[in-house]
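Before the break, one more example. Copy the sequence into your notebook; we will annotate it together after we see the structure.
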Amino acid sequence: MIKNIVFDLGNVLISYEPQKFISKYVKKENQEKFFDIVFGSEEWQKLDRGILEYKEVIEIFSKKLPEEKEAIERLFCNNIQEVLFPIDKNLKLLPVLKENKYNLYILSNFHRDSFLEIEKKCNFQKFFTGKIVSYSVKLLKPEKDIYLKLLNTYNLIPEETLFIDDTLGNIIAANELNIKTIHLKEKENLDKELINLGIKI
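Here is what the structure looks like once it is written out:
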């Protein structure tokens, strides 16, 4: 019986859309390069892991792509909020699930400054019993230790725990620890996927 529901954030509760920012603020001829240098970079992963800060990556990325320095500064000075869009339909499930006595948790790869801002914006503290966010534990999904950190910190039994993520590799890692999962391929289908598993919403 499922007692605990664990949410990834990106494309589960928060839509992650870097292309919206790029098409709006980056010159057309630099758009592909911008995506690779910024969003597809090792530095982006290091931000998730909490071992780099925004002021550092502004400098790094501006050296690699000086012609887009203004866009780079805009992205990080706004804590990447212009690529993050709350999914209202899915966020509305949180109070219902909490009311139905499920314990709710966050397990997500996220930069510190952007997480703190989105947490406040979406009032996460009202709904979630706990959270393991990559920057604060210096671990990333799908590393086994980040899942163990969640289970051990909150004394969760894997067989009573459901984890929802949009990335297959993260789902496979959770399954290996006997955590039940939903691989959310379409973010608008979260309610249906929960119902299919017998979750009361």
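The first strand starts at residue 4 and ends at 7. DSSP finds twelve helices and seven strands in the chain. Try to locate both features in your own notes.
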